[in-house]
Amino acid sequence: MADLEIEVCGIKMKNPVMPAAGTLVRDLDSMRKVASSGVGAMVSKTVSTEAARDPLPNLAQVDRAFFNCELWGEISPEIWVNQVLPQARELGLPLIVSLGYTSQQIDDLAPRVKPYADAVELSTHYLGDDLALLIEPIKVARRHLDVPIWVKVSPNIPDVKAMAIAAEKAGADAIVAINSLGPTLSIDVERVLPRLGSPTGYGWLSGPALKPLAVRYVYEISQSVEIPVIGVGGISRGTDVVEMMMAGASAVQLLTAAILNGVETYTRVIQGLESFLDQHGYSSASDIVGLFHRVGRIRYTSPPLIDQEKCNLCRLCVKSCAYDALAIVGDQLVVDPEKCDICGLCQTRCPRDAISFQYQLLPCCNERTLK
């Protein structure tokens, strides 16, 4: 059995999976429910200087996209500090308290949550893209806190990597990447109405559609800073955790999948991670952190090879081949090498791993690795 225990900023966790700040950790009862799923640490919904009044409706699923226009915690900071956080300390998990947003608000909140937090996560969600406004709350928090400060970065600013580098210089101990993407708009075409109740109808995108962007930022940020990176965005399976960690994440957070499929999602994700590590011969979760940084890039060199025994002639690859290079002939899938562009789509469409390619390894383009 692989060892799932990890350590981030001196905080030991029994596994690298945490909830992200949001709906499922909005109060003590919800935090207890998430804790029972086996997560490695607890993260609170964002505490601010007043209770939020969320627009109604504020959550919607459309296809594989998830939208929200929630704000921050719906309970007052007084309730958080006097009731929720003291009891959340008794859950037996490291407690990461999410705080937002401005330097003035952090100046008020940081000393109040200090007795209960193993780490504080600063949300930059509503601070715009002025780097000075994004960095000042970190400096303010550092004056008050001797626990690790994690900074959650938004993909909606011009240069996320520059933000992460600046956050490290300002005193951040870890980067949480990334928050939801937006603003976005989804329209109910039958009612000709927005799906969300914000003043503009706009919201923020999360879920599987966000994952490739999140993985990219985790990869870039983890090469640019010396502090840990926590990966967030689109995680719903154990292999998603693996991908984030291979890209450079020391741990992960997830929320959307657990909202849609229940808090038992955390249990399944943790089990999926453990199963992957065992099946692939890794002794611990830490073995895969940054693994992708140390490999080269590939170039496919010839048309696909078909494993006829695995292929069940489902035709998914045939339907999606824009070059008409694949066809079912008799009881076999065949490739026309003259038509094939070696684009690789068929391999990713095949549900039975029946399609493979020969490839050439190219030199690694990771600057830190090359050094």
Gyration radius from CA atoms, angstroms? 22 Å
Flag low-confidence runs: none
Q: Give the CATH architecture of the largest domain.
A: Alpha-Beta Barrel
Strand % is 15-25%
Helix content: 25-40%
Topology-level CATH name of the largest domain:
TIM Barrel
Question: What value does the average pLDDT take?
Answer: 96
Description:
InterPro entries: 4Fe4S_Fe-S-bd, 4Fe4S_Fe_S_CS, Aldolase_TIM, DHO_dehydrogenase, Dihydro_DH_chainA_dom2, Dihydroorotate_DH_cat. Belongs to the dihydropyrimidine dehydrogenase family. Its cofactor is FMN. 31% of the residues lie in helices and 22% in strands. The chain is built from twelve helices and 22 strands. The protein has helices spanning 28-35, 77-88, 103-113, 131-144, 160-170, 211-224, 238-247, 256-261, 264-279, 316-319, 345-349, 367-370; strands at residues 6-8, 11-13, 17-19, 42-43, 59-62, 65-68, 95-99, 119-123, 149-153, 174-177, 181-185, 187-188, 193-194, 202-206, 229-232, 251-254, 297-300, 305-306, 326-329, 332-335, 355-356, 359-362. The chain has an eight-stranded parallel beta sheet. A four-stranded antiparallel beta sheet has the order 5-6-14-11, with no helix packed on it. Strands 1-2 form a two-stranded antiparallel sheet. The longest helix has 16 residues, at 264-279. The mean pLDDT is 96.
